[in-house]
């Protein structure tokens, strides 16, 4: 990890969803370095180089953060609020992952500064498509601010 | 003397009138008191009604959000089932024999079915929560649009007849949902006939428009008519005709939201007709003028 900059940060408490997302990235030929963090607390430790990530070079920012909203303890909205409130992390694009397009949290997420959201589709093929498009947009087309 | 007598008489009269007035005043005061009492009673019972309405609303909202979160949370494990079955198919198809592949296919088909079911349930619960935005709808055009969409997604050989359908006032997207559902049903349940025939008609009756969609399909026994619009109620097995049993419940909910009515007539083996009523456009505009 020291040598490779993490490009995709996946914050997802559901192991199945995480595995499917990672597989979808690989299937979509998005082979950027990805790290999967299993809950909100861990994500904050990583982003702000505290706890078990103490000493991590915070100038190395992920190109995109995929953030699940529904997580125990520190939920996605809380993580999002902290990301967007800190000068260190607020420029990193955050894509919110949700189970349905009607979730009331989506609006809340946007108001906190989420860059976009994707609905995790039930159909895996659909999931691959969505994740590929997303990866293409945020990793290739979008020029991150430095 | 006479004048004195006259005065005395007038005095008596005056006193009499004053007495009458006092009585009338008392009567009025009493009536006023009664009125106030009644008003207070009315306010009390109004409060009770408000309270009851509030409670019904709360309960309904609870139920809606329960349906919503249940169907919502069901998607997560379903996504896993579907995703892993897909992985198995992609990565291990080489080691699976034909029976293994068939079994895996069944898993995937059923996961997909459940996905549709959940989506239908979500639509149903969403309709309970969302308001409607009404506008004038050209129903004839709408039917045309819906048919184009159906023809694109479903292969069928039904002859479908309609002309000059009356316009109405409705939420365009919701009415589209109703027509799509009823037409798809008509096509589905007449698909096993040699010559499936579907007719859409409209007529003005007692200030409302009544629309009907008839087919010459399998129909139904009128003794089950009250089951048609229930959630998850089906009159056919999935092997005969596929479906989730939510479609007509959604139709009914949409029409009720428009203060309309929906009903059906049918005969086993001889087709069915579904009716729904919506406002008459002309009547509404006449009123406004």
Automatic annotation (TrEMBL), chain A:
Transmembrane segments: none
Modified residues (4-aspartylphosphate): 68
Keyword Nuclease: no
InterPro entries reported for this sequence: CheY-like_superfamily (IPR011006), Sig_transdc_resp-reg_receiver (IPR001789), TCS_response_regulator (IPR052893)
Keyword Metal-binding tagged: no
One record GO biological process: phosphorelay signal transduction system
Keywords: Phosphoprotein
Pfam family, one: Response_reg
Boundaries of every Response regulatory domain copy: 7-135
Source taxon at top rank: Bacteria
Designated name of the protein: Response regulator receiver protein
């Amino acid at each position: 990890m020291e040598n490779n900059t993490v490009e995709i940060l996946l914050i997802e408490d559901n192991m199945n969803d995480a595995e499917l997302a990672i597989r979808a990235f690989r299937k979509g030929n998005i082979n950027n370095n990805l790290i999967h963090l299993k809950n909100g607390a861990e994500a904050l430790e990583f982003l702000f180089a505290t706890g078990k990530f103490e000493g991590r070079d915070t100038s190395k920012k992920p190109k995109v953060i995929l953030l699940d909203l529904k997580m125990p303890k520190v939920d996605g909205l809380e993580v999002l609020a902290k990301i967007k409130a800190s000068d260190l992390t607020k420029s990193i694009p955050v894509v919110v992952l949700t189970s349905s397009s009607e979730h009331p949290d989506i609006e809340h997420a946007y108001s906190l500064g989420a860059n976009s959201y994707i609905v995790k589709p039930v159909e895996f093929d659909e999931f691959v498509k969505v994740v590929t498009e997303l990866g293409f947009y945020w990793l290739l087309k979008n020029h991150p601010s430095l | 003397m006479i004048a004195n007598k006259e005065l005395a008489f007038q005095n008596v009269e005056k006193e009499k009138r004053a007495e009458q007035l006092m009585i009338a005043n008392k009567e009025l005061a009493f009536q006023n008191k009664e009125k106030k009492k009644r008003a207070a009673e009315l306010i009390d019972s109004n409060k009770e009604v408000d309270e009851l309405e509030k409670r019904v609303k709360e309960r309904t909202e609870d139920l809606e959000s329960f349906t919503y979160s249940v169907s919502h949370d069901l998607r997560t494990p379903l996504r896993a089932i579907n995703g892993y079955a897909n992985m198995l198919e992609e990565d291990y198809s080489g080691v699976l024999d034909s029976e293994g592949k068939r079994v895996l296919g069944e898993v995937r088909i059923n996961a997909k079915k459940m996905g549709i079911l959940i989506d239908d349930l979500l639509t149903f619960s969403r309709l309970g929560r969302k308001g409607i935005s009404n506008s004038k709808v050209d129903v004839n055009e709408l039917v045309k649009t819906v048919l184009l969409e159906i023809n694109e997604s479903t292969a069928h050989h039904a002859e479908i007849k309609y002309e000059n359908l009356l316009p109405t006032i409705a939420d365009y997207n919701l009415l589209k949902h109703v027509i799509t559902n009823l037409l798809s049903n008509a096509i589905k349940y007449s698909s096993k006939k040699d010559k499936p025939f579907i007719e859409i008609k409209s007529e003005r009756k007692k200030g409302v428009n009544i629309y009907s969609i008839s087919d010459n399909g399998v129909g139904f026994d009128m003794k089950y008519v009250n089951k048609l619009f229930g959630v998850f109620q089906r009159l056919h097995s999935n092997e005969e005709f596929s479906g989730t049993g939510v479609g007509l419940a959604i139709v009914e909910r949409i029409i009720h939201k428009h203060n309309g009515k929906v009903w059906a007539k049918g005969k086993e083996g001889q087709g069915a007709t579904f009716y729904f009523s919506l406002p008459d456009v002309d009547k509404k505009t006449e009123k406004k003028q």
